[in-house]
Amino acid sequence: MRDSLKGAARIAAFVLLTGPVSIPAQQKPPEPPPMPVRAALVTRATLNVEVTAIGTLRADETVMIRPEIAGRVASIHFKEGQTVNAGDPLVTLDQDEYKAQLAGSAAEAGMGEISFKRLQDLQRKNLTSQQNLDEAKAKLDAARARQTLDQVRLDKTVIRAPFAGTVGLRLVSPGAYVKPGDDIANLENIGSMKLDFRVPETYLARLGVGQTLTVRVDAYPDQGFEGTIYAIDPALDPETRTVLLRARLPNKGNKLRPGLFARVSLILERRENALVAPEQAIVPLGQKIFVYRVVDGKAVMTPVRLGLRRPGQVEILEGLNAGDQVVTDGQLKIRDGAAVTVQPPPGT
């Protein structure tokens, strides 16, 4: 007991001499350095609402040249692959038989006209009846009709191009006998092309004549061909629930050919001044979509609403403004409010 009192007295005397003992406060941990990230600006661009489809190219005009009458092929006036104008003769059939028929009907018509005029003179003198005159007039009309028919048959021995185009491969030779409807050669007008394709009925309300489209074919994989819709079928296919559209494409250099398989990209809507951000900036979190904006050196987690998607880009409907800087690389290493430093793009 006496020793304890002596120890307390010594401590009190030490405190009086040296003053109170200070205990150091707990120090805060140092803040981590800014996290390096890459970022890009939100910009404005024109976006197209598109629908893709497949279709088949057709010639603007196409016909298989066929004779309307029977006969022997006397001469062929075209070369395979030749370009012809409307009305140019393509094939001539033997005309001898048809010329003879025309000569006979012309003679018959001439004789009928002489008889009719003679009866007219007699009728004016009351030397014949009106009935005889009417019968002569009917015979004359019939003879003239046969003459006209024979002339039409003779004209059909020359088969002419119904429109300007390119003649295909011929299927007959001089001297061949052809019947009505036999194939001779196909004629194609490929100065412009028609394109038939179908799209689902869900797009029906957004379709219209005059809409533009882009076509790609396997023959020219790196080239796009522009066209315009000019007709929409009023009826939908009840089995596929699709609507048939027809477009016309200019065919400079005759690169496109009928029958080509075409991949169609149809522009339904054009959105001007749409906000777009890099697709790499999007951070999905549950049912929501976020981006990290860079504001005063801090990462700010911002919810956004997306629209159209394009390769490498996405439309921003809500949440951002043009000129905002969004993190595109390094999102997994940061959190809301974290300090960041934006690195320059690679190669700069």
Topology summary:
Layout: H1 2-18, E1 35-41, E2 43-65, E3 71-76, E4 83-84, E5 89-93, H2 96-124, H3 130-155, E6 158-160, E7 165-167, E8 177-178, E9 185-200, E10 212-217, E11 220-237, E12 242-250, E13 261-278, E14 283-285, E15 288-295, E16 298-303, E17 305-310, E18 313-318, E19 325-329, E20 340-342
Percent of residues in helices comes to 10-25%
User: Stretches where pLDDT falls below 50 for ≥5 residues?
Assistant: 11-17
* Ends apart, CA distance between termini: 82 Å
User: What is the CATH superfamily classification of the largest domain?
Assistant: Helix hairpin bin
Q: CATH topology of the largest domain, what is it called?
A: Helix Hairpins
Radius of gyration: 45 Å
How confident is the prediction overall: mean pLDDT? 89
Trace the largest sheet across and list its strands: 2-9-12-11-10-13
CATH architecture classification name of the largest domain = Orthogonal Bundle
Could you say which structural class the secondary elements and strand pairing correspond to?
alpha+beta
- Major beta sheet, specifics? 6 strands, antiparallel, barrel
Note the run of SSEs as H and E.
Answer: HEEEEEHHEEEEEEEEEEEEEEE
Number of helices: 3
Assembly state of the chains shown: single chain
